[in-house]
Amino acid sequence: MKFPSTRGKIAVKAPSHEGAFLFAGTWYSFYTYMIQKVLERNIAQALRNIGIEVPDHKVGFTVEHPEDLSHGDYATNAALVYAKNAGVSPRDLAVKISAQLTEISHISKTDIAGPGFINFHLNPKFFIDAVASILAEKDSFGSNVSGKDKQVLVEYSSPNIAKPFTVGHLRSTVIGDAVANILAFSGYKVIRDNHLGDWGTQFGKQIVALRRWGDSTKIDSIQNENGNEKMKYLVDLYVKFHDEADKEKESGQASLEDEARAAFAALEKGDLEATALYEKILAVSMEYFAGIYKRLNVSPFDTQHGEHFYEAYIPKVMHDLEKANILSESEGAKLVFFPKIGEGETAKEKYPPFMIQKKDGATLYATRDLATDKWRKEAYGPHITIINEVGIEQSLHFRQLFEVEEMLGYFKKGERIHIPHGFYRFEDGKMSTRKGNVIWLEDIINEAVKRAGDINPETADIVGIGAIKFNDLKRESSQDIIFSWDEMLNLKGDSCTYLQYSYARAMSIVEKAGVAGIDPHVQSAEDALVSGQSRNLSSLEKIMYRFPEVVLRAGVEHQPHYIATYLVELAGTFNTFYGNTVIIDKKNELSSYYVALTLAFATIIKNGLGVLGIAVPEKM
Ligand code: ARG
Q: How far, in Å, CA of 299 to CA of 285, rounded?
């Protein structure tokens, strides 16, 4: 991320408090998410001082931001949790705990509320320091080093060759790209992998369709105006294959299906004609996908090997399975059965059996997945975490896969992660390429950009693509999305356009202030504090410092939506602040601080949308 150029120069100083630390030349506001830990430790100690046993690793209470900002900046339910053990009322215990809590850095006041919550208020200086750090850290504000020296492979997008890029793959691309960005922002070394579906029996069908009804030499001359005409040509053939095969079935013959099986078998054996057709199909698909990634403005992949590449590792996997003695034969097929859980009559296998090899010797999707992870482990070393961003309908597959990989000793618990995304639901039910009633992603992108362009042609791309991405990223990934144009391109409320607009507005204020000779600065707020002037803290100040905590959590839980919803909340507080405050005011000492707040806000929106893979317009 590059920081926007501003006309006013940024006058900042590095945070002076003990909580910040310098890493690779940048100040990190480590304190913003450490305060929670410090409070937790202090509260646990206070409880112990009162004679209550509190386990070290699992304190049992929470320290969270209260929903209502007037209740303070952090609150704990410790007294409610431990009142029973202490044999007193929660409120009485809260009083006792508070009495034990002396001086905690950054905390100016503690009070007791409701049935026994303890609320903590950060001191006013803390907020000013936080603004100074935001301006100092610029485009790295919000980052953290939790992933330092750790390596993670994020596999996402993974469309299937010779098929349209579906909205399911769109979800995987958008969420996977955001997760990879967040982890990189958290200090991880990230490998971005596109696991292309480029092998399997369906390619026999595609080869037959192209051979029978198509003309592979003609494909090159098809004009690819929208980037998908060549692809449409292949997909139409694929749909025709199924129509014809259905007709055949009705009349009792089945030669097309047989021909397709034979074509795939020939491809596997390296037959020249089948290979040439396959390579044509592959080239058309890759060109088509590349166009989509460019349009969506996602980061480039580090690797795009595809399933076929890993086939060479299947013999090694078979060997490992034999050696671990977990392969069973059933009617000629090879499967892994999972151990039983529960006891006696009710005992049940943990998962249904995992098929590794069919009775005709053919391997499966599952086998290729095992081979893929074996390869990755060898290529990237033993300490790698692997994340698959794949639809929720494959959840069972991944649970089985991870279990088998543990049985084989490939991975330990927690080193394999599946981030499932829910369905995009359309009024006419699930989409299918076979039936030809698929919605092409390009049509969605084009429509989004067109609608955004009707409002302002200059920002059409940034706003249109941003809308598509944010519409997805603002919700927990496993949730379904009911497809709605109005919601996707909604210009109000929790939409991307609202955030982009707020950013542009903030940047134009900073620019105007620069022209008026007011530079962003926290000094005036510090002076006011020192001279004892009281100033109402804005909600903006109380929300901005939390950004690094939100990024950290989004990274740990692999959920970009925490960032998305945080940004919406933040923009709301900025717009309230903007409504209540005369920001540029030469007669007001604090004006430079208000400009600093405005620039800090813009910085967070830019960094936040940036890790979500969304650009901001300088003007709107
Ligand atoms: N190509 C697959 C599909 O479109 C997704 C692949 C997911 N990754 C994996 N390692 N199985 O359904």
A: 19
